[in-house]
Amino acid sequence: MKLRFDVVPTPASRPRVSRWSTYYGKNHTEFVKVMKTITAHANVVPFEGQIYAKADFYVPMPRTWSRKKKDAHIGKYCDNNKDLDNYQKLLFDCMNGIYFKDDRQLVMIRARKYWTSGNGHIECELTKCG
User: Fold this and answer.
1) For the segment 46-100, what is each residue's pLDDT rounded down to a tens digit?
2) 59, 114 in Cβ contact below 8 A?
3) How far apart are CA 29 and CA 15, in angstroms?
4) Residue 17, in any domain of the structure
5) CATH for 54
6) 130 pLDDT more than 90
7) Pairing of strands 106-116, 2-5
8) Is residue 13 predicted with pLDDT exceeding 80?
9) b/e for 82-120, b at 16 or more Cβ within 10 A?
10) Domain residues for 33?
11) Into how many domains does the chain fold?
């Protein structure tokens, strides 16, 4: 199953703890909200059994970069300071219960980050193992 989510890739953040509650940052919360909207109309039967997932994250380039620097980086691997595993974590947590019953079913994952000149998006492919 090939999927495309038109949402800016966002890494999972640590929960913030205050005196009265625990909460997540603005970007994390906004990503979850958008993913819920996108996946609300997904009329799919969740995968059962073991799953192999491929995820490609197309991260938008900073606006402060010059045109020359943007042209040099477009389509190349993204080397920003955000960890790839945090991008995966938030994506698969949002897909949990919709495309598969539980993210424990994921037994193999291939993930990559690329720079893009657009708004950014995520391409994901899920296949059954064995």
Assistant:
1) 888 999 999 999 999 999 999 999 999 998 999 998 999 999 999 999 999 899 9
2) yes
3) 11
4) no
5) 3.30.1330
6) no
7) unpaired
8) yes
9) beeeebbebbbebbbeebbeebebbeeeebebbbbeeeb
10) 2-10+24-38+49-128
11) 1
Residue 91 lies in a domain: yes
DSSP state of 62: P
Domain-embedded: residue 19: no
Query: Is residue 53 one of the residues assigned to a domain?
Result: yes
DSSP 102: -
Q: From the centroid of its chain, how far is CA 118?
A: 16
Helix axes 26-39, 84-95, angle to 10 degrees: 40
pTM metric for this prediction: 0.90
For 67-80, write each residue's pLDDT tens digit.
Answer: 999 999 998 999 99
For the cut 90, the answer to whether the pLDDT of residue 37 exceeds it is yes
